[in-house]
Amino acid sequence: MAATMGADLLVKCLIREGVQFVFGIPGGQLCPLLDAVRRLGPEAGLQFVMTRHEQAAAHMADAYARVTGRPAVCLGTVGPGAADLVPGVYAAWADSIPMIVLTAQNQTWKSYPERGSMQSLDQVGLFAPVTKWGARVTHWQRIPELVQRAFRA
């Protein structure tokens, strides 16, 4: 229930910030979010644009922001999916182009990057050199605060 509630809340926050497009690739951990976009997005003008690679998603978000002047959102799944966003995120960061990067994460109780667990990665640390701000959502109730902070960074 919390996954659905969190996903719905995140989509409502993105809509409130005026997001029209989320670029990315579906992945297992992203299903609640993508379902929320499918259910809540059309009426508000928000749509998911599926790409063939996460790097393409980041470059599409970059291009959208450059052309429209509006912040764009790219999306990647756990571990390698998040890592594949980095080159496109760097391109936007290097030119001060606004971009929101969302990634899925394994549940904290089964995420042990120091032990080499499956697709586990310090994603906030990975993006730190090429973003202005980053956070890991540990409680769904913090989503509005964190989304607002991301858009104001």
Structure explained in plain terms:
With 153 residues, the chain is an alpha/beta fold. The chain has one domain: Rossmann fold (3-Layer(aba) Sandwich), CATH 3.40.50.970. The chain has a four-stranded parallel β-sheet, with helices on both faces. Helix 1 packs parallel to helix 7. The protein is globular, with a radius of gyration of 14 Å.
Order of helices and strands: HEHEHEHHEHH
Tell me the number of structural domains.
Answer: 1
**How many individual helices?**
7
Poorly predicted segments: none
Task: Give me the CATH fold name.
Answer: Rossmann fold
Number of strands: 4
Give the name of the CATH superfamily: Thiamin diphosphate (ThDP)-binding fold, Pyr/PP domains
| CA gyration radius, whole angstroms | 14 Å
Question: Can you give keywords for this protein?
Answer:
153 residues; Rossmann fold; four-stranded parallel beta sheet; 47% helix
Tell me briefly what this model is.
It is built from 7 helices and 4 strands, in the order αβαβαβααβαα. The chain is of the alpha/beta class and 153 residues long.
Topology:
Layout: H1 2-16, E1 21-24, H2 31-44, E2 47-50, H3 54-68, E3 72-76, H4 80-83, H5 86-94, E4 99-103, H6 123-127, H7 143-152
Parallel strand pairs: 1-2, 1-3, 3-4
